[in-house]
Amino acid sequence: MKRTLALLFALVMVLTLFACTAQEATEATEAAEEATEEVVEATEEPVEEPAATEEPAEEATVEEPAATAGVQRIIVWNNAVEGLTASEQPRGTDDMRSAYSIQEVYDKCGIQGSDDVDVQVIGSDGYVGEEPLSDILQKYLTLEGDNAPVVVGEAQDPDWAVWEVAYLNFGTDAIMTSYVEKISVADMFAALGMVEADSYDFICTDEYTFNVAAEDIGDCYVSWIEDRVDAEVPGIGDYTLYSILYIQPGA
Q: For residues 101 and 151, what is the distance between their CA atoms, to the nearest angstrom?
């Protein structure tokens, strides 16, 4: 009996000791877990990443269309004055010339000049004089007499003049005078800075239009033919366009 009680007491002691050890182990484990959670929480604090430095966006470059520079239409003075009335205008004190108003031709042909850009008066020798638009429109151009074509009129100082005027260049429009028997269209283009095009329209006073390829311009002329100022061009029956009025880039 005593032996049995001793065994039971020993078993109770072992179980008590085991329970205490298990509780201590559990408490230790819970403490370790709490410490781990604190570490994790501390570690999980959001770390602000440095803001990414954005490269400045390049401003879009808008390319402006290049301005079209140069003459876009040549007007043949000899035929532009058709239907207009000449008047006697002074070329000095005792010299009167039959001449046509530059203003009337300007209006008739719808020339587009500018008060901000001087008109170039170009001689057959290449000399260039410049005058404000408002001044040149008060004057007249004669095809008669010494040094003609020459600008005349009361508004023209006879001591200043471009002799043998070949061109009046208003900017996009230019007037040419047929002062000799034959003038190369290619030379006209070069002298005036005609705009480049694949082809050019030759327009007569009756509005008949003939198109000439750019590569054939070297074979074209403005010529006096039977008291008319015509255009000689390749590709047409007798090579002649009667009473040529305009030359401009093809439509």
A: 10
200 closest CA partner among 191, 188, 114 = 188
pTM comes to 0.72
SS3 for 198?
A: coil
Residues 78/177, Cβ–Cβ less than 8 Å? yes
pLDDT in tens, 184-203: 999 999 999 999 999 999 99
192: closest CA among 76, 34, 50?
A: 76
The residue among 129, 119, 124, 136 whose CA lies nearest residue 171 is: 119
DSSP class of residue 35 equals H
For residues 27 and 22, give the distance between their C-alpha atoms in angstroms, rounded to a whole number: 9
- Please write the tens of the pLDDT for every residue from 151-184: 999 999 988 889 999 999 999 999 999 999 999 9
Give the helix/strand (H/E) hosting 43: helix 2-43
pLDDT tens sequence across 196-236: 999 999 999 999 999 999 999 999 999 999 889 999 999 87
Q: Is residue 91 a contact partner of residue 158, using CB atoms and an 8 Å limit?
A: yes
Cα 110-111-115 angle, rounded to 5 deg: 130
Per-residue pLDDT averaged across 69-77, rounded?
A: 94
Contact 67, 110 (CB under 8 A): no
- Could you identify the residue written with the tokens 């085991």? 18
φ/ψ of 7, rounded to 5, equals: -65, -40
Beta carbons of 145 and 89 less than 8 angstroms apart:
no
